[in-house]
Amino acid sequence: MAALKEFFSPEIIWFILGLAMLLSEFIMPRLIIAFFGFGAWVVAILCMIIPGISLVPQLCIFIISSVVNFSTGLYYYWRYGNRFQKYLKVSKNRPM
Q1: Residue range of the domain that includes 62
Q2: Is 76 a domain residue?
Q3: pTM (2 decimals)?
């Protein structure tokens, strides 16, 4: 029973959730779910550093870190993404 309790610790659950989100990015490649996966890994690391943290701070940290990751990714895409568009041979009229 102790091994089962250790397996369902918050850091393991957040790590598995983040891994599932990152792996689901291969199925639905829009690079949105990956930011939430990285946010889940941030919570997993913080749960290892600060043991006994309750669910509400975990969810707040997950939301904040996911939004920060997403906005940072958007910033770098807007700043540097247009530079690489000329190297891609993609038609603008192609449906997504």
Answers
A1: 8-66
A2: no
A3: 0.76
